[in-house]
Each structure stands twice: as structure tokens, then as C-alpha cells.
Amino acid sequence: MKKLMTLISVLALTAGTAMAEDIKVGVSPGEHAEIMEEVAKVAKPMGLDIKVIEFSDYVVPNQALADGDIEANSFQHKPYLDNQIKDRGFKLVPVGTTITTPMGLYSNKVKSPAELKDGDTVGIPNDPTNGGRALLVLQDFGLIKLADGTGLTPTVLDVTENPKNLKFQELDAAQLPRSLADLDAAMINTNYAIAAGLNPKTDTIAMEKADNPYVNIIVVREGDETAPWVKTLVSAYHSDEVKKFIEDKYHGTVLTSW
Predict the structure, then answer these.
(1) What's the pTM?
(2) Is 57 helix (H, G, I), strand (E, B) or coil?
(3) Which domains occur in the chain, in start order?
(4) Higher confidence at residue 194 or residue 124?
(5) Which of 73, 188, 256, 258 is the most buried (most CB within 10 A)?
(6) What are phi and psi of 22, to 5 degrees?
């Protein structure tokens, strides 16, 4: 009887261990990394151990996911994922929404978009989706006009009106905060702004409207969508604890989607 009880205990322990899962989630620096660390705290009692892996650019996290180096990533919006799938053939799918981070126009030289002078240089991200997003925001600010029908991915070649003859310098998104001293202004994604010590609420000279199509997403490989750990990951992210963390830490510069 004693041996039987011992065997039952061992089997129960083994089953409990099997229920716990370890996953790696790729993120970009700044708010995506900070929020996922909070998600990891919430997910742990739910039986999911999350190791947060930071990537310094927007290209590597999808490749790492496709290659099986990580189980999920959380750093991008759907227009960017769609473009990556189109260009690289990744078999990746979104499984949940996360946050919206309005893109901001930053400058060390002027206080508003209207103060930009003839021939000034504006930095924008060099990837098609975020570069296109930057141009659309600059159009909203009244600085340029884009050709009709360009959708969410216009390029500088689609600029049809440019009253100030602005020049556009396309740089890696992570480089833009470090390049502000050499630019007259730059369109910078919130995660890279925060990582560089900029405050999106006080340091921007203009901010993208909150109502935009660039809500961020959690992404996994095709075939993993129905895995139990995916449901746990999304549930942990959409928890009240994580929402409160975001509201308390970012004071409206990062918006939740749930």
C-alpha cells in the first residue's frame, strides 16, 4: 500500500510538472519589454513560465519566431506583420491584440511642425510599414500630401505636395532617437523613444491620433494558435493587473486594446 501511494504521488508530481510550460517571447525594447515582464508575473501562477527576449530591431523577431528560436513575439502591428509575410513568406499568425503606441514627431530644434523651415530634414523609419505610417502622420500634420490610393504603405516617392521642400532621411527605427541632433525632426515609434529616455507625452512636438489602425499584436507560428499556452499568454496579457500596470506607468502614452 505504501509503495502504491508513493507511485501515485510521483505520478501526480510528474503530471503537475508536465502542465507547466516554458516559452520564449520576443519583444522590442521599451514598453513592449516592460509590459511582457509584467505579463510573465501574471502568467507564472497560471502554469506558464515566460522568458522575455529583447531584440534591438524590427526584423529579427519574426525571423526568430519562424526559425523556432522563440514561441511568440509581441512588438508589431498587423500592417507590419502583413508586409513581412508578403516579403518573406513567414507562416505566422496573430492571436491577440495588445497595445497602441501613437508615433510622435520629436525635435531638438523646433517646438511645432509649423516651425519647420524650407529644406529641413525629417527622419523616418526605413522599413516600409513604419516609414509609410510616418508619412501618413506627417500628412495629418499638414506638412505633405500623398498620392491617392497608396494605402498604409506610401513611400517618399508618393509625396505629391511638399510646400516646405522637406527632405526625408530614412533610418533604422532604433537609430532615430540617437540621430535627433543631426536632424531637424524625426518620426519615432514610442518603444524606441521610451528606450532612449524620451517621454512621448512631454517631448513630442506632435503626436499621431490615438484612433489609428496600428494596434499591436501577439504573434505565433501557424499551427500553434490553438495551443493551451497561447490562450494562457493572451489571458495573462489581457488581465486587469497588466492593464493597471500600463495605465499607471505610461499615463496615456500607451493605450490598451482590451
Answers:
(1) 0.80
(2) coil
(3) 22-101+214-256 (3.40.190.10), 104-207 (3.40.190.10)
(4) 124
(5) 188
(6) -110, 130
